[in-house]
Amino acid sequence: MSIHSLPLRRATMAPARALSSCLDSGIRKARLVSQSTALPLAERDALEPLSRRISLDQKETLFGQDEPACSVFNVTTGALRLYRILPDGRRQVTGFAFPGDFLGLSLLDRYAVSADALGPVTACRFERIAFKNLLRAQPGLLMHLHEITGQELSRAKDMMMLLGRRTADEKVAAFLTGLQARYARIGLSGVTLELPMGRLDIADHLGLTIETVSRTLSRLDRDGCILIVPGGVRVIDQTRLDRLSAH
After folding, report:
1. Going along the chain, which residue ranges are E strands?
2. pLDDT along the chain (247 residues), means of 10
3. Phi, psi angle pair for 222, to nearest 5°
4. Is there a contact between 144 and 40 (Cβ–Cβ < 8 Å)?
5. Which residue ranges make up each domain of the chain?
6. What CATH class has 8-159?
7. pTM of the predicted model, to two decimals?
8. Considering the domain 166-246 in this protein, what is its CATH number?
């Protein structure tokens, strides 16, 4: 059962995960909407009253493919894997969600993908009806969310190109430089890249086998382009990584 399928009160009011609505003896309201999101402060403030915090443990499902899409989510901490199960049973990892990302913005009746936590995750949950009503009253917020959706579409197009006639080295390099750009937007290091996803996740995202991903990372490490470190990679030769990813 996904977290999304639980009633909103049950998902957010468990004692260990209770929402702390105020800090400093009620003087300063706790912020729930991720400060990493690409929204002006005034628009984050407009979303705050609608938000409910939820927490997931590793491997917990936020929402499942084809479930009724009754909520919109904003990731606060952690990372999630987004994937579809194809009719023949194969899995296609369509992307990864990081702090600041919104999920469910397409406003379709059902979720097109499943979202699983790669580690501990916190997120804000917005009821769909209240979220849509706010957008009607806040055209500026609607415009900015359209821009965010446009960025997601751009990443999807880049992914289609990535799955084309590129070599394994070029695919993995493009994946790493894409992570660099996303991490830079949320203030994380672009030199040492955390990889919360496993190599099988990367393989299912890039249309490769897990063995090919492992060999490619090892080859890039051996050639001095990256250094494999616990939990991720460190970029050693940025020029070469950029050249490989641009092919």
Report:
1. 22-23, 28-29, 52-56, 61-63, 71-77, 80-85, 91-97, 102-103, 114-117, 121-127, 192-194, 226-229, 232-235
2. 56 30 31 59 77 94 95 94 94 93 86 96 92 82 74 70 81 94 87 96 95 97 97 96 87
3. -65, -35
4. yes
5. 8-159, 166-246
6. mainly beta
7. 0.80
8. 1.10.10.10
